Amino acid sequence: MRKVLIFVSLWIWCAVAVAQNAQPHLNPQEPQPEKNAPIISFTLSFPQGTPPFYNIAVDSSGRAEYKSSAKPNNEGDPYFLKFVASEPTRTRLFDLARQLNFFQGSFDYTRNKVAYTGTKTLEFHNAAEVHQTSYNWSENQQIQEITTLFQNMEETIELGRQLEDKYRFDKLGVDAILKNLEQDAKDNRLAEIQAIQPILTRIVKDPAMMNISRRRAEFLLSKIPKGAAIGPTVGQQ
User: Residue 207: how many CA atoms within 13 Å on its side-chain side?
Assistant: First the structure.
């Protein structure tokens, strides 16, 4: 009987762990959503890409997590960053998901051969309801827009990650990364800049940094959406 109880306890623990792993890893200080908030996630798997694998999950309250791996197929220790998506972004993501019938259907373009730019997967979770669709490229305008939204988030976050590394190990290289972020802002490719607010603030407050770098960081901080939550958690798991 004791063995049975131990087995049942372990099974329950494993089930809970799996269920939690399917959700974004959330910060207790972030706003708490309604129970079982719907989640939209985007995954890109592209061995030739940098990074070759990443996933972004956003729930209906805005709580979000970014994960990437330096190796294809989500292998190795992932980098992850938790943040809160701005209200306009999460509203648009869920509006597009509704227009796409929550990703029920095939949207991949197959009539003619197009360049392979990675396998992209959109997934919708709402309690037991799960839908997903995968594609390389789609002529569907809503698919194109939601893909661009997620890809812009990835670019901003990865540049923020490079900024962290340069700030720690090569301060002379910081300005080049800030310049790339500044160009993204001018090209309307900057997305969810509040996710990398801590490193930008450190640069602004660091008197040892070049004045031009501090000014670039100030400009980028001014692009944080009004009312956006800040203060992400970064690490590996």
Answer: 0
Cα separation, 187 vs 43, whole angstroms: 24
pLDDT tens string 118-160: 999 999 999 889 999 999 999 999 999 999 999 999 999 999 9
Burial class (CB in 10 A: 0-12, 13-18, 19+), 87: middle
* R_g of the chain computed on alpha carbons: 19
Question: How many structural domains is the chain composed of?
Answer: 1
Exposure of 223 by Cβ count < 10 A (0-12 exposed, 13-18 middle, 19+ buried)? middle
pLDDT given for residue 105 in this prediction: 96
- What is the pTM for the complete model shown? 0.83
CB-count exposure of residue 1 (10 Å: 0-12, 13-18, 19+): exposed
Distance CA 10, CA 52 (A): 35
Enclosing domain of residue 49: 25-236
Asked if the structure places residue 18 within a domain, the reply is no
**Max CA separation in the chain (angstroms):** 70
- Domain annotation covers residue 15: no
